[in-house]
Write a structure and sequence with these properties.
By secondary structure, the chain is an alpha/beta fold. It contains eight helices and five strands.
């Protein structure tokens, strides 16, 4: 059985390998953080932002939560966005969902799961806003995947309509918000073509 001791061993092996390939890597990394990307993704352990984008530590600033939701009352998420935009001066914000998302699936039934039901309410609202798009879709997998996409599109709008982004754009900051969906079955990202480069209000 794995214990936390295995994590220390894995960490040491990883650090040794990185230093072998680039002896100055950690020294350089410790002296700066200047990513051009903010990733807002799902907490799902199968969707690792750095790895699937082929980026090293320090190249992408990451925020993750259940079903990649951006809510205007979530001070955690808003603080990450504000720091990324105002301090790090990122140029790209990526909202990335993934097909087969457990949070999205859970939002589509009427089971009670406790505290998380309050969070899933936001995704239920996305379904309600777009209920007509589900007419005629009988395959459950297709319905879930459509809601995964619509949820990303809605969260792109939420990011774009935040006071943080409106202020940045009003000040002439170069910044674009994108909506992507990751396919767990083949590791490929799908562009939902919802890039926003200016205030939508």
């Amino acid at each position: 059985m794995n214990t936390i001791e295995n994590l220390f061993k894995n960490n040491q092996n990883w650090a040794d390998k990185v230093k072998e390939n680039d002896p100055e890597f950690f020294q350089n990394l410790s002296e700066q953080q200047s990513p051009e990307y903010l990733w807002i993704g799902c907490s799902d352990s199968r969707v690792p932002a750095n790895q699937l984008l082929g980026m090293d530590p320090g190249e992408i600033f990451v925020h993750r939560n259940i079903a990649n939701v951006v809510v205007h009352t979530d001070l955690n998420c808003l603080s990450v966005i504000q720091y990324a935009v105002e301090v790090l001066k990122v140029k790209h914000i990526i909202v990335c969902g993934h097909y087969g998302c457990g949070g999205v699936m859970a939002s589509m039934d009427n089971e009670s799961r406790g505290l998380i039901d309050n969070w899933l309410r936001h995704i239920k609202d996305v379904y309600r806003f777009h209920e007509d798009k589900f007419e005629g879709l009988t395959d459950e997998k297709d319905r879930i995947n459509l809601l995964c996409e619509l949820n990303v599109i809605e969260q792109v709008a939420n990011v774009s309509n935040s006071s943080i982004l409106r202020k940045a754009w009003d000040n002439g900051q170069e910044l674009t918000v994108y909506g992507l969906v990751y396919n767990l079955k083949d590791g490929i990202l799908k562009d939902l073509n919802v890039a926003v480069s200016g205030s939508t209000l």
